[in-house]
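User: quick one, fold this
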Amino acid sequence: MVVKAKRTGRPRKTLKRQDKQLNFICLENQKSTTKQMKHIGEEAGVNVCDRTVRNRLKEMGFQYRKAKRKPALKTKQKRTRLQWAKERQSWTVVSAVFNYTFYSQSFGQI
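Assistant:
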């Protein structure tokens, strides 16, 4: 029979149920910050600091990634885009029928 030994160190601030609530909050609001998740968690009954939220999310496998900003278009790029769009402004959509033949390894032509 395996018995868990008493662990040293500070006891966990959150229970497994509260960790699941944090996981659900994170999946529901993926673009929110840990401080915002903390406030949402407080409403759900999980009273922890934002550092604890970060630690729990890291344990669950979530990673922090800062979104990269796209560089703004330069004036020359804006002019060429506008020119390209004006040239194609009068185009119409023509429906075409494409015949594709799919082959499967086991059944031959489908």
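User: anything notable?
Assistant: The chain has a mean pLDDT of 79.
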